[in-house]
Design goal:
With 299 residues, the chain is α/β, with parallel strands linked by helices. Helix content is 57%, strand content 7%. The chain contains 13 helices and 5 strands. The protein has helices at 5-15, 21-32, 34-39, 42-49, 53-62, 68-82, 90-96, 100-121, 125-137, 150-163, 177-181, 200-211, 249-283, and strands at 141-144, 167-169, 189-193, 215-220, 233-236. Strands 2-1-3-4-5 form a 5-stranded parallel beta sheet, sandwiched between helices. Helix 9 (125-137) runs parallel beside helix 13 (249-283). It is globular and about 70 Å long. 29% of the residues are buried.
């Protein structure tokens, strides 16, 4: 799990009572004014807080960063991303007026934008409400896909299990998803992801889930993918591509929105599980951290 803005601000809130007063003042300023912190240089930020620049460096090290700039970068990136919609499409026009590679990039970028926008436009609130209700009320929620779509199912289950511990990938091991559904019942649900050409195994899993009385959520490029496949909720996604394989950016955007709603529904319990997972990974050295440069002592 990367150092996102939410991760960092949550960690600051958790640790603020256990750090020295000067660091507390800096932490509170960052929590209250994340945009200013992302924009301003260290001296200006320190002046606003009323501390020395060294305090911000110490806080950065305490948070696991090599220095102030590295600590500020996630805030800067979040700020830039949040304003992306205000920046217009001049960059795309510039690409279109460039050389052949630039023009090709403009086409691919425009297509990706169209695919995401179309997929999100079709994501109606009532469908979201029903899907989130099915998932949160389920004892287990299996997520299945094959081949290229498998990466989407893996990501959704990997992150989703922190929001709802009952979410699990199917198949968990080398085999068929049906193997994992053998003991499923009406208290469970299935999320299936497949686009044309539709996976025979995913279709089989959906039919089997229906026999078990499970709720079924489908993410696909069509509402109707095969006979006797009747999902309770379908999220149609665009997969239009300018090359020979489907474009999955729209499906990814839809799944990420569902994850956001699941964390909202899970509240503090979901956030606590995410923090536990993050801490466990940090404690076991799962993430690379740059080593701090040794201090040079002056003679």
């Amino acid at each position: 799990m990367k150092d996102t803005l939410n991760n960092l601000t949550n960690k600051l809130r958790r640790d603020i009572e256990q750090i020295p007063p000067s660091l507390q003042a800096a932490a509170k300023y960052i929590i209250d004014y994340p945009g200013d912190f992302g924009l301003n240089p260290i001296r200006l930020t320190a002046a606003h807080i009323g501390v020395s620049s060294n305090v911000l460096v110490r806080l950065a090290h305490r948070m696991g960063f090599d220095g102030f700039d590295a600590f500020r970068e996630p805030f800067r990136q979040a700020l830039v991303t949040d304003r992306e919609g205000e920046l217009g499409q001049d960059w795309l026009a510039n690409l279109q007026s460039g050389d052949q590679l630039s023009q090709s990039q403009a086409k691919y970028a425009q297509n990706a934008q169209n695919v995401v926008t179309r997929s999100l436009r079709l994501m109606h609130p009532e469908k979201i409400r029903r899907a989130v209700d099915f998932i949160t009320k389920s004892k287990r929620c299996f997520v299945t896909a094959t081949r290229a779509s498998y990466a989407l199912s893996y990501y959704f289950s990997y992150v989703g299990r922190m929001a709802h511990p009952g979410i699990q990938l199917a198949p968990r091991h080398v085999g068929s998803a049906v193997d994992d559904l053998l003991n499923a019942d009406h208290s469970d649900c299935l999320i299936a992801i497949t686009v044309h050409p539709y996976s025979a195994e995913t279709i089989q899993s959906m039919r089997f889930a229906r026999q078990k009385g499970m709720k079924i959520i489908l993410v696909s490029d069509s509402d109707v993918i095969a006979p006797k496949v009747e999902p309770d909720v379908t999220f149609p996604v665009s997969v239009r591509s300018l090359h020979d394989f489907s474009n999955f950016t729209g499906a990814m955007a839809v799944l990420d929105c569902i994850l956001g709603h699941l964390f909202d529904a899970g509240g503090e319990d979901a956030n606590h599980r995410a923090r536990q997972y993050q801490q466990a990974r940090e404690n076991t050295g799962a993430y690379w951290r740059p080593s701090k440069a040794p201090k040079i002592r002056k003679p």
